[in-house]
Amino acid sequence: ALTAGTNVQRMAEQCRKYRPALAVMATLDAAQQLMSELADIEIEVTYGEQGLIRAATMPQADCVITAVVGMIGLKPTLAAIRAGKRIGLANKETLVCAGELVMAEAKANNVEIIPVDSEHSAIFQCLQDPYSAKKLKKIILTASGGPFFGYTKEQLETVTKAQALKHPNWSMGSKITIDSASLMNKGFEMIEAKWLFDVSIDDIEVVIHRESIIHSMAEFRDGAMIAQLGTPDMRTPISYALTYPERYDFG
Question: To the nearest 10°, the Cα dihedral for 200, 67, 115, 218?
């Protein structure tokens, strides 16, 4: 199954390439346009939240990457968990809105939640040693500081939308790019980390790391720290969520 917002042309291209059994668009209008675009191939097209839930619970699927924007991802994610699917979580609002509920459902259904956000994927990888994980002292999330790092209060009063949308290191959608420019996104990530790793918010620290090479770090009670490093490329955490515990060979 593939799901999308309203970019019919891009979705049609992906459907022709990957031939999913089910395609889901955000709106009825977009779904109707997609059906017209794909009239020559065999594919089911639907739309909306119920369509997302259908995609998330398809019997053929063993892993669901939940990457829609906003809390509309909550119900489909819960449905996937209750259907026993492994979750690759890129929709942080799901845990920001209902972290306690989602993690309890995952535990009750014995479902793995593998984080896709680069910072949380980094922490997840740093905690793969179960013995060390039991001695975790602090989670350190890194932040690039965004396009306005070092700006004075006066300079911030005149920044533009175009400037805010120009992230120094990452190529992302507009919402998360704006949230990153204001550092609101890092607040969301702290909440996400609290629920994913079952730690107190007081045990999560944010540090500015302009290069985005260290994606995050774990500090242990003996003073040791483990960091996950890599280029700012989302293909790595996405592939890790899909193939965990294996690692895909990019060559």
Answer: -60
